[in-house]
Amino acid sequence: MSIFRRLRDLTVASVNDALDSMEDPVVMLNQYMRDMEVEIGQVEVAVARQVALEKKFRQQWEEAVALVEKRDRQVKLALTEGEDELARRALADKKQYEGRAQEYETLYLSAAEAAGQMREKLAELKEEFYKMRAKKFTLMARAQVARTQKQVNSAVVGIGNQTAGRGFARMEEKVMRMEAEAQMSGQWRQTSMGLNNALSELEKDDLDAELANIKASLKENKASAAPETKA
Fold first, then answer.
1. Pair 46, 151 in one domain
2. Which of 117, 145, 161 is the last residue of a domain?
3. For position 55, which CATH number holds?
């Protein structure tokens, strides 16, 4: 049983954590305010009905009292006129309306007390609603500040430690690699130019030597041809 209880506790804890992470304070505060508005609306309807019932019982009580007073006058009038039987009937009717008046008075007082309590409850709900509405705006502002601060902090951390930082390091390494390749390319070019210059100098020396040989050959030919001309 202890294993199953622990599994249940872990499951409940995981579900609660998931629900907590899904709850957006702004969304939930707006929902709570809507719930309170619905509750206030329901109480207002109940109060209106109770007030209507209070007015109804009051009207019935007042009508019954008016009939009692009317029958009382009629009893006295009948006795004055010597109509004892009529006076007796009017008196019995008066007693009946007195009973009704007392009943309606009780109902009216009970309905009035209930209506008063419901009015107080409605006033308390509205006062609480106004307080919660004012507090809602404060909490929403605090939530927005916290959310913005969290985004800024995440961005700063990201620049230093995450994608942007790694990207800059990689680009710096690439630039250094390009600079090294450019430097090596320049050194190779200088080496190649030095080789070409050296080979050109060698070729120039060969040409000079060949020209010197040709000049020497021409001189020799000229020297050997000179006596033959004198003969």
1. yes
2. 161
3. 1.10.287
Query: In this predicted model, what pLDDT tens digit does every residue of 43-64 receive, in sequence order?
Result: 999 999 999 999 999 999 999 9
Check: CB of residue 90 under 8 Å from CB of residue 74.
yes
Provide the whole-model pTM. 0.50
**43 close to 115: Cβ distance less than 8 angstroms:** no
208 vs 178, which has greater pLDDT?
178
Apex 52 CA angle, 46 and 56, nearest 5: 145
Which of 137, 161, 185 is the last residue in one of the domains?
Answer: 161
CB 26 within 8 A of CB 140: yes
Cα gap 78→82, rounded to integer Å: 6
Q: How many CA atoms lie within 13 A of 186 on its CB side?
A: 6
Residues 157 and 207 in one domain: no
φ and ψ of 82, to 5 deg: 80, 15
What are the structure tokens assigned to 61, written together?
């009580």
- Judging by beta carbons within 10 Å of its beta carbon (0-12, 13-18, 19+), is residue 214 exposed, middle or buried? exposed
pLDDT band at 132, cuts 50/70/90?
confident
Contact 67, 97 (CB under 8 A): yes
How far apart are the C-alpha atoms of 185 and 92, rounded to whole Å?
A: 131
